[in-house]
Design a protein that fits this description.
The protein is mainly alpha-helical. The chain folds into 3 domains: 217 residues, Growth Hormone, Chain: A; 51 residues; 204 residues, Growth Hormone, Chain: A. The chain contains 18 helices and no strands.
Length: 480
C-alpha cells in the first residue's frame, strides 16, 4: 500500500495523469521521431533478415537449421520479454529503459555484422531480441504518456503508419544491401540510426514512470521463454521429425508445462509481468483477442506468400519482397486518419469492418490465378488487405492504450506487442502443419490463406461483440 499523503508519490501520480500537458509540442515532435526510428529498427530486423539468409549461409558455412535459429532467436526473445520490458519501463523510467534497449539493440547489431560464424550470429540475434523487447513497449508508453487523450489516436496512428512502412520495406532494403554490398550491411544500417535515437532521447525526451510498480518478474519471463520456445520448437520440427520423435515430444511437454507454471506463477506474483486483472476490462480483452487472431493470420499468411510467389509464379526474391509496398503506402497516407476516426466514433466500427476487409484480402490471395500480370492478379488482393489493415491497426493500438490508466501504459503496450509477436510465431509454425498436410506447397498455401481469412473474420466478430458502441474516450479505465 502506498502512503496516501506522500508528496513524492502524489507528484509522480500527477505526472502520470497530467504528463501530456507538461510535454511541450517540440518535445512531442522529437519523441515521435525517436520512437518511430527506434521501433522501425526493431520491426525491420524482423523482416529484413529473411532475404539475407542465403548470403549469410554461404558466407558463414552454416546449416539450414542454424539459419532458422538466426530468425527464431530474435523473434523468440522479443516475444517472451516484451512484457518484462514494459514493466521495467513503468518502474524505472520509460525513457531510461527505452534508451537502454536502443543501446543494447545497436551494440547487438554491430555484433551481428562482425560475426564470423553462425553461433556468434545467433547469440547476437538473441541479444538484439532483448534490446527490442525493451525499446518497443517503451515507444508506445512514451507516446501515451506525452500526448493528451484527444491527440493520442493521431500520434499512435502516425507511429503505426511509419512503423508499418519500415516493416514492409525491410525485405526490399535487405535485398538491395545484400546485392550491392554484403549481408553484414543488413545489420550495420542499424548503427547510425541507433546512435541518432540515443542522442534525441538524451536531449529531448521527457521521463515518465509509475512509482508503484515493483521489481520485474524474472520467474515469469523465464517461464514465458520456455513455454514459447518449447511449443514453437515442436510445431516447427514435427513435420520433419514426426510427432512421435522424442525430441519433439520433450519440447512440446516442456513448453506446455512451462505455460501452466507461468499462469500459476503470474496469478500469485506480487508484481506479475502479465497482470490478469487487466483483462477484466472488456475493451482491453477484445483488443488483445483481435490482435492474437489477426496477427496469427498476418504473420503466417505473409510468411508463405513470398514463397508461393517465388516457387510457383517465378517472382524474384526482390520482387516478392517488394509486393507489400502498396500496403506501406496506404498505411502512410491513412493510418493517422484511421486513428482520428477511432477518437471520433469509437473503436467498435473500425475494429469490426477492418478485419472483415482484411479477410477478403486473404481470400483473394487464396484464389490468385496462376497466370496474369501483377496489376490484375496480385495488386487487387494486396490493396484489399492493405485497406483492412490500415483501418484496423491504429484504432486497435489506441483501444489498448486507452483501456488502462496512463501509469500502466508500459505494461499495456508490452502485453499487446507480446500478443502480436507470439501470434506471428505460432501462426508461422502452425500453418507449416497445414502446408505439409496439403500434399503440395501451392495447395497448402491456398489453405493457409483461407485459414488466415477465417481468423481475421473471427477476430472482428469478437471485437464487435465485446466493444461497446461508444466514443473513443469512453473505453477508458472505469468505463467497462
Amino acid at each position: 500500500m502506498r502512503p496516501p499523503h506522500s508528496k513524492r508519490l502524489k507528484r509522480a501520480e500527477s505526472e502520470a495523469d497530467h504528463g501530456p500537458r507538461a510535454a511541450a509540442a517540440g518535445a512531442r515532435r522529437w519523441l515521435l521521431v525517436a520512437t518511430v526510428l527506434a521501433s522501425g529498427m526493431a520491426f525491420v530486423d524482423g523482416t529484413l533478415v529473411n532475404v539475407s539468409l542465403p548470403a549469410m549461409q554461404k558466407a558463414l558455412h552454416a546449416t539450414l537449421a542454424q539459419m532458422q535459429w538466426v530468425v527464431e532467436a530474435y523473434a523468440l526473445l522479443l516475444s517472451a520479454l516484451l512484457l518484462t520490458g514494459g514493466a521495467l519501463g513503468d518502474r524505472y523510467g520509460r525513457r531510461r529503459v527505452f534508451g537502454i534497449g536502443v543501446a543494447v539493440f545497436t551494440a547487438a547489431s554491430l555484433g551481428c555484422a562482425l560475426s564470423g560464424d553462425a553461433p556468434m550470429l545467433i547469440a547476437a540475434r538473441a541479444l538484439q531480441g532483448v534490446g527490442a523487447a525493451l525499446l518497443v513497449p517503451g515507444s508506445l508508453a512514451l507516446i501515451s504518456a506525452a500526448f493528451p487523450p484527444q491527440e493520442r489516436g493521431r500520434a499512435i496512428g502516425t507511429w503505426s503508419g511509419w512503423s508499418g512502412i519500415t516493416t514492409a520495406l525491410g525485405p526490399v532494403l535487405g535485398g538491395w544491401l545484400v546485392d550491392r554490398y554484403a549481408w553484414n550491411w543488413a545489420f550495420l544500417v542499424n548503427v547510425p540510426a541507433g546512435v541518432a535515437v540515443l542522442l534525441i532521447a538524451w536531449r529531448q525526451l521527457p521521463e515518465s514512470r509509475d512509482e508503484g510498480v515493483e521489481a520485474a518478474d524474472i520467474a515469469g519471463a523465464v517461464l514465458a521463454t520456455l513455454a514459447l520456445g518449447g511449443i514453437v520448437f515442436a510445431l516447427i520440427e514435427s513435420p520433419a521429425r514426426g510427432w512421435s520423435s522424442p525430441v519433439v515430444r520433450v519440447g512440446l511437454a516442456l513448453g506446455l508445462a512451462a505455460g501452466v507454471a507461468f499462469v500459476r506463477v503470474e496469478r500469485r506474483a506480487r508484481a506479475p509481468m502479465l497482470p490478469f486483472a487487466q483483462f477484466r476490462n472488456r475493451a482491453f480483452s477484445a483488443a488483445n483477442a483481435l490482435t492474437l487472431l489477426l496477427y496469427a493470420a498476418l504473420g503466417g499468411g505473409l510468411f508463405y506468400l513470398p514463397l508461393d510467389l517465388i516457387r510457383v509464379r517465378g517472382y524474384t526474391a526482390t520482387a516478392a519482397g517488394s509486393m507489400l509496398v502498396p500496403i506501406t503506402i496506404l498505411m502512410l497516407l491513412f493510418s493517422g486518419r484511421a486513428g482520428r476516426l477511432a477518437d471520433r466514433v469509437g473503436a467498435r466500427l473500425p475494429l469490426t469492418v477492418g478485419p472483415a476487409i482484411a479477410a477478403l484480402g486473404f481470400a483473394l490471395f487464396a484464389w490468385l490465378p496462376s497466370q496474369g500480370s501483377f496489376w490484375t492478379t496480385l495488386l487487387p488482393a494486396v490493396l484489399v488487405l492493405g485497406v483492412g489493415m490500415t483501418l484496423t491497426v491504429a484504432p486497435l493500438t489506441t483501444t489498448v492504450m486507452n483501456a488502462v490508466a496512463s501509469e500502466h501504459a508500459g505494461i499495456a503496450s508490452g502485453i499487446n506487442n507480446a500478443v502480436s509477436r507470439t501470434a506471428g510465431l505460432l501462426g508461422i509454425a502452425a500453418f507449416g502443419l497445414v502446408v505439409t498436410a496439403a500434399g503440395s506447397f501451392h495447395a497448402g498455401f491456398r489453405q493457409v490463406m483461407l485459414a488466415s481469412a477465417l481468423l481475421a473474420v473471427l477476430g472482428g466478430v469478437i471485437a464487435g461483440s465485446m466493444l461497446r458502441p461508444s466514443r473513443g474516450t469512453a473505453d477508458r479505465p472505469g468505463n467497462r
